[in-house]
Amino acid sequence: MNASMPIGVFDSGIGGLSVLQALQKELPHERFVYLADNAHAPYGEKSEAFIRERTHAIADYLLGQHHIKALVVACNTATAAAIHELRARHPALPLVGLEPALKPALALSRTRRIGVMATRGTVASDKFARLLASVQTEAHFEVQACNGLALAIEQSTLPDQAEAAQAQIAHLLQTYIQAMGRFGCATGDIDTLVLGCTHYVFVENDLRQLLGPHVQLVSTGEPVARQTHRLLAAAVLLKPEMTDMTAQPMRLLTTGDLQGLQAAAQRWLGLHPEVCETVPASLG
Ligand code: DGL
Known about the structure:
The structure is a single chain. It contains 11 helices and 10 strands. It is an alpha/beta fold. Residues 11-13, 15, 41-44, 75-77, 119, 122, 150, 197-199 line the site of D-glutamic acid. D-glutamic acid is lined by residues 11-13, 15, 41-44, 75-77, 119, 122, 150, 197-199.
């Protein structure tokens, strides 16, 4: 491993681009290879065994074909299912996972009522149960599994599906927010909402409209980027600022639909469609 190698980042689809955005801001001199496993998205409603299998295949592929020096699992669902096994398999690899930001939310909430939106897979995982148990005495957490939401967000980037997907997003957000209870800043209101899936960051504006200006939305992109920075520094793997940038700084790969990734990369990161490419779904 050496400092000029890229950092690997992956998610089931485009959600992890919200993390990539924060990583690029925190580490502007680094090179990144992002893999969107669109052929197998969404992960949130699949079995843990399946997600573990995909996670290992992706890690092996990024290490073997792209020679990454660190890996960011930009997916709460894959982290919950597979991060322990990944750490055991790759003990020398700097590895960063994501979990719903319950602890940061505790520091922000005044009403001590906190909403958590995440995929079914994350909510049902042992890892999440342990995390929740560690904070449950300090506040009330209203946890909502948001089936279908990550998929609708994926579909909203595809031109021919965008309109129907937007309507579905609006419907799902309304339903899930209502199911969690009353939001606001009065006693008994939920005043803080944790976005426990990287896809949900891309519907922050829609959530803001539903919840009003006083509810705090908490996501994990920035703390994860800072943690990645710390790990690379500790391993002496930070790319020196002055090294040549002729090597492509950003490569985005998808096992699925190229157009969707290109549209999302352009819309949210201002990236040219040419940085996106398709790879075989088998990663073989
Ligand atoms: N973006 C992912 C997460 O953070 C997974 C969404 C999905 O594929 O269901 O959980």
